[in-house]
User: Fold V-type proton ATPase subunit S1-like protein isoform X2 from Octodon degus.
Amino acid sequence: MHEDVHVYLNSQISSSKEMVISSDEQRNGNMEAVQAATAGPITQTPQSNQSAGGRAFSPDGPIRVSRHGIPCILFWAKRITVTFENQTWLDLTERAFGQKATVDTDHSHCSEESATLYLNFGDTRNSKALAMRLVLGHDGDLGFRLLRLELLLNGSTEAAFGARAVGAPAGRSFRCGRVSSQRPDALLPPLPPPAGSWAHWDVTLRGLQLQGFAIQGGQFAKARDCATSTSSPAVLLGLAMALVLLLVLAYALHMLIYLRHLDQHYESVASPLHFPQLWACSGTEGKELLRSQAPECYELQGQQNYRIYV
Assistant:
């Protein structure tokens, strides 16, 4: 299976300079393909283009999928790259957007509960065409979220990725500078590979903007940036530790204030001013009280001594 994938990727690289070559070719000094794949941001003319499925691609706009003439999916990315076995970097951007776009979206569809964007980047007559499938879920008033992303080859799923916090509230779009399956910011964590597939794939979407359902005017709504809509585990852990530390400091401060209050209380209790009437008693009365008790104590002690000697 790996040999078939390499054959397909090599054929795509040799037939189109939109692809990024493998690391071996880079070391051999083939800079033409590298320059074609690592060029700057794609510039597009104000002329629309038609995909194989007949859907219009505005050069300055996203890929649109409609249901009953109403857009249900909007998809845009500044760059789409796929990596196979950490060697071959495939740039699919120009095949998806621009005047030379050849991507086919015929297998995309929408319903009330879910939507699927199917991007076929190869010739539809080629049984080994590489495709990407994005599955969106509809949460009603809560908006939409990306459930999973799949890479397909020869019509079968080669790799699947979950989606962590990729979505937006109703009437908003999702935007992020980098959505990738590669760590450390893996918003697309890899799922267990399908049976019989052990290949390692990675996908990266740079400058991603996505919207599903509740699309007004066929254009992206106000975007919710991933920097504010998602929080990494490290950030959440840091916030939790800061909260715990704040609670500990507050408790320590409370105990210090309480102990100081107790000290002041006991000092005031032990002060002579706290019992003025007792200290105002005459000294003679105290002496008489001691004298009246002294003989009794002496007699008891004498009785005890007497009993011991007998």
Summary: Residues 13-59, 294-310 have pLDDT under 50 and may be disordered. The longest strand covers residues 201-212.
